[in-house]
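3.2 Worked example (two chains)
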Amino acid sequence: MRDYYQQFRQVETTIIAIAPIGSEQVKSYWEEAGIPFIGNPDYAHTIAKLYRQQVKLLKMGRMPAMVLIDKHGIMRMAHYSDSMSDYISVEDLLVQIRHLNDENGLC
C-alpha cells in the first residue's frame, strides 16, 4: 500500500491500517518504514472484532482483511483473507474504488 499511496490519493482514498500491536510499536514501525498513511493500533482487537477479522493461530494470527468504506460511512466491500498471502491486488482495489466513486458521483 505504501508504494501505491499516491495512486490512492488520486482517487481520493484514505488508507487506515489497523495493526494488532500497541501504539508505541505502531509509531516506531511507521517511522522506520516511512509509511505515509495512518496506522491505528488495535492491541485489544476491538476493531478486528467489530469487522469480524479472522484469527487463525496456526496461520500466524490475524488474517489480512481489506474493507472499503465509502464517504458516507457505508461498508461497500470486504475481503477476508484465508492466509497471509491472500490479498486483493492494488490494481483490482483501485478499480473497485473508481467504480464506487463513479457510482456515487464522487469522482
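3.2.1 Second chain
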Amino acid sequence: MRSRRRPRSQMAAIDQINVTPLLDLTFLLLIVFMLTMPLMEYGTNVKPPEMNSDSLPDEDEVKAVNLTRDGTVEFDGRAVTLDELAVELRRLKAEEPKTALLLRADGEQRYVEVINLMSAIRGCGFDDVTLVTRAEGK
C-alpha cells in the first residue's frame, strides 16, 4: 500500500526565519559607525572667524589691555602683572565708570590665557569687555 502524503501548504514552508543575513547587516553597520564616528569628531576644522563689527569708540573713552605673544600683559602702554592690572582697573572703574575696555590678544596666544585675563578683568567690575579682532580681508 502506498502511503499518501499530504501536500505541503505554503505556510508550512515559512515556519523558520533565517536571521543570519540580518545579523551580518547589523554587525556591518556597527563596524562602519565605530570607524567613522572618531573621524567625524576630529575632522572638524575650527578657525575663528574674522569680524566685521562697528568701528572702535574714541580713544578718550576707551582703555586697552593687551596680551602679547610672549604672555606679557600691557595696560596703558606698560607691562603689568595681573595683580597690578587688578589695582589699576579697580581705580579706573571708581574714577571713570563709563570707560570702555578693549582686550587685544595675540592670535598665537592660547585660548585659556585669554579667558583667564578676561575673567580677571570682569572680576574688577568691567562686565562689558570688547574683544578686538582684525578686520576681514586684512
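3.3 Remarks
Residues 20-42 form the longest helix (23 residues).
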